[in-house]
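Async update (no meeting this week)

Hi team, since we skipped the sync, here's where things stand on the single-chain job. The sequence we agreed to prioritize is pasted below, unchanged from the tracker. I ran it this morning and attached the output directly underneath so nobody has to dig for it. Comments welcome in thread, and please keep replies under the output.
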Amino acid sequence: MSESIPTARDPGDVLAGVPVMLGFYPSDSLVLVTLRDQPGEHARVVGVAARHDLLIEWDQLLDAIARAAAIAIRDDATAVLVLLIDSTTDEVTSRSRDSRHDHVVHSLASALTRRGITVDGAWATMRIAAGARWWSLLGPDRTGTVPDPETSALAAAYRRGRGEHAIRPSREHVAEQVRVNPVLVERVSEIFSAPTTPDPAAADEATPEQRRALIASMIERIDAVAVGAEPAPAEYANTATALRHHHVRDAMFGLPTTHRAQAAQQFWAVLTRCLPDPDRAEAATLLTFSAYLNGDSALAYVAVEAALRAHPDHAIAGLLNVALRTGMAPGQVRPIADRGHAIATEHGVSLHD
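Output:
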């Protein structure tokens, strides 16, 4: 169980903690932070942080508000904090009656109050950065400045409780980790189109011994990546072909709970950038799960989006997407890793060796 994270009392500290909670500095965003009462705690503790685009059509924003409310309900929240980061406005416009910010806060409050969840605070800022000005959107008019997000008290507490992860400058920097490399995709596609390429329809007709060999070869490739090897396009193609065997792919879900977790995640990210659709979906789904289990929700979100673009009906990617969107804790999806270990063991392979 992760350590409970007490919520900050100062709005500036809450805003400064958002980048470490999300894994990146959000811009033009609606961020909802859930709070829970815990037995033995003297204050409410932080649950999850959920981000949605803010500068979108109102109908789309209403959908985002409904999804944010659903996350709070799913997280058994007692209360929430609402944060609006908006580079296009100022304090006077933001606080005016019937402003976009006013509608967002009151729409959320209305959706949550019906479920017994209160809005404990709502604040806005143009950006999250040391010295940026924030202002209140509920209750008495208050203003202040954001402390350094890298050293804020809430960020430090979050790192202690949830693990150390890099804070990216923006969501776009996270997306770079899964952005397609068109040159490599074309080269891998050419290998797939060669007459000697195995028929993917026959992927699950392999014998248990053949599957064991494929699982072992996948581990060998990941171990090579761990010591700095850079696979050739032919190896990417061979890996994609191996992942078409569901037993092989499902065994790989066990790797995030082993000493190979970091190397495997690096390998899935590379494959996500260089494989053509629909094979890209398998690598992106493995990347999603690895990032999710390691608490890197920012990477998990962009990876699952990549998986579903490559294969909209991918069953495991769909399940992980629902888990992420509803705020399920990483521990709740860990049984997928346990099953991966069981499958590898059935084939005579230990992922820990």
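Quick observations from my side:
The chain has two domains: 11-167, 175-193+202-346.
DSSP finds 15 helices and six strands in the chain.
Reply here if anything looks off.
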